[in-house]
Amino acid sequence: MHRMTVLLGHGSGGKLSAELMRDVFLPAFSNPILGRLEDQAIVEVNGTRLAFTTDTFVVKPLFFRGGDIGSLAVHGTINDLAMGGARPLFLSTAFVLEEGLEIDTLRRIAQSLAAAATSAGVTIVTGDTKVVEKGSGDQLFINTTGIGLAPEGLNLSAGHARPGDAVILSGPIGDHGIAILSQREGLEFECPISSDSAPLHTLVEAMLAISSEIRCLRDPTRGGVSSTLNEIAAQSRVSIQIEEKAIPVREEVRGACELLGLDPLYVANEGKLVAIAAPSAADTIVAAMRAHPLGREARVIGRVNDGHPGLVTLRTVFGSTRIVDMLAGDQLPRIC
Amino acid sequence: MHRMTVLLGHGSGGKLSAELMRDVFLPAFSNPILGRLEDQAIVEVNGTRLAFTTDTFVVKPLFFRGGDIGSLAVHGTINDLAMGGARPLFLSTAFVLEEGLEIDTLRRIAQSLAAAATSAGVTIVTGDTKVVEKGSGDQLFINTTGIGLAPEGLNLSAGHARPGDAVILSGPIGDHGIAILSQREGLEFECPISSDSAPLHTLVEAMLAISSEIRCLRDPTRGGVSSTLNEIAAQSRVSIQIEEKAIPVREEVRGACELLGLDPLYVANEGKLVAIAAPSAADTIVAAMRAHPLGREARVIGRVNDGHPGLVTLRTVFGSTRIVDMLAGDQLPRIC
């Protein structure tokens, strides 16, 4: 790697993150399970297929419209399990606290985290707390690691997209990133934007119950929908074309993005998913999603194509086509 | 809780840590599995008993004599699984990087972490990386979370000590804490002290293979042997008496402790364990431990007694007896 120090962009979920993975972590840790590069590992213990995933949350500010670092830490890890088709069961939580943090702030976050877990039906079974000196952290960071039960025979993967497949999106994009960013920048909108932070496992359950033709599920968090689609296109060695007019973006989010010079395709979501499915099953899957509160605006937003492996393109509302690359810089640090 | 902000001592593994657990985390997360307060949760998935444990490492400095934050992050989590009698299988690793960290430092640590995992026979199957701005972290923190296979019918617990039981210690204490502290303070000794950081799962395996009379296993990390024994005495509602002359402490560690005004009983270890076992089995267990490279200096250091539930006392080399309380302050921050 030609860059000598860690940059904020190394945590963006985009190109630099991929570079760090390729140049530092994969060579060190190389093994077939990690090498799958999915949001979760699927491991077998005593004949039981487990999903296993970890995520540290460093979101700033700690409290935001629509959630806080505690609820986000639960939803984020549940979603990484759910994207493997697994039923989330148990979470661990590990806190790094900065000396001087208000105990009441910690208590509120712990309670929110617990409430999010209870409401999603997962149990927090083990934990850890570390304290660092003032100035060596930033209030608090939370790691949540989750275990889920992965159904027999199900093998969702970003490497399974095939030409002709439909690209399905569960709802409007960019809410989480814009909620965080507008709060951080002190922007005020007529209709304030809330994070979409939500646990997606019951939506996934409904989708898997109705169709066995789902090839891949991903939640477009850091790096947004564009980075997710780029990963799928690269790992499946296919190209993907999406239709701008099919992609739902709330008016307020679109406005904020224009104001901030952001492309909603690169903005983080915490309660949305992208599914790749056989074309014949797409309508059935979308119908099942729309019957779920978290998928009411689900729709097909594009197609998987042959040729140009790794390429993602957008057909704009004006009919022109442009390349949608991976996030290159550090558009939105500490969004999750 | 009467204290309003987080203090360094809340991360010490002593009284303040217990207070935070009791006043903030347990009321929020309360459930029977977490309430066990063991180093690991034992959960059942599809009839398979899994051990599950999490730990974030914030040790400073990152590299120390006898290890680094990478190897420590592997050993610490393996040991928490092993103390439940479980066979460690899979680890997740989650990095929080501070902007500006040298990539080469990260690479060395990733390689050390990977080497420690390989040598202990565990596989790193999933991970996460976040980056925070310069000044919002301290180089890097690592969370490792582990899954192990817990044998059927084995139920080790700090609540299982009974009057008459033997207290067994696997070897000399205080090495890790003194190695870190002397390096941090720039102290030089004739015989430099190395951390005892090591994976204890094969030692535990040997112990469990030879005896079914082990009630409890604990690794005395933060807060040292004194805090571990206090936890066992409190949870089992017994008292414990240990013999000062029976407790192995290296000459160099004893000297450093005198110099620094520390009691070795409160200093952290990362490659030692305390076992509580039926008195009739103690000799057999100690013999099995001595046959293992990590238990060569194992010995019985005390007894569990009736009465005075929660009290730990030390009979000194002079024949007097003193109370050994839990660690009260923040003797050694960021030791692990």
SSE diagram, text form:
Two copies of one chain form a homodimer.
Chain A: H1 15-29, H2 32-35, E1 41-45, E2 48-57, E3 63-64, E4 67-68, H3 69-82, E5 87-98, H4 103-120, E6 123-132, E7 140-149, E8 166-169, H5 175-185, H6 201-210, E9 214-218, H7 224-236, E10 239-243, H8 251-260, E11 274-277, H9 282-290, E12 299-305, E13 312-315, E14 321-323
Parallel strand pairs in A: 5-6, 10-13
Antiparallel strand pairs in A: 1-2, 2-7, 3-4, 5-7, 8-11, 8-12, 9-11, 10-12, 13-14
Helix pairs in contact in A: 3-4, 3-6, 6-9
Report what the structure shows.
Two copies of one chain form a homodimer. The first copy, chain A, has 336 residues and is α+β, with helices and mostly antiparallel strands. Chain A has two domains: 39-149, PurM-like, N-terminal domain (60s Ribosomal Protein L30, Chain: A); 166-323, Alpha-Beta Complex (Phosphoribosyl-aminoimidazole Synthetase, Chain A, domain 2), CATH 3.90.650. Helices cover 31% and strands 25% of the residues of chain A. In chain A, the strands form three sheets. A seven-stranded mixed sheet of chain A has the order 9-11-8-12-10-13-14. A five-stranded mixed sheet of chain A has the order 1-2-7-5-6, with helices on one face. The mean pLDDT of chain A is 95. At the A-B interface, helix 1, strand 1, strand 2, strand 5 and helix 4 of A face helix 1, strand 1, strand 2, strand 5 and helix 4 of B.
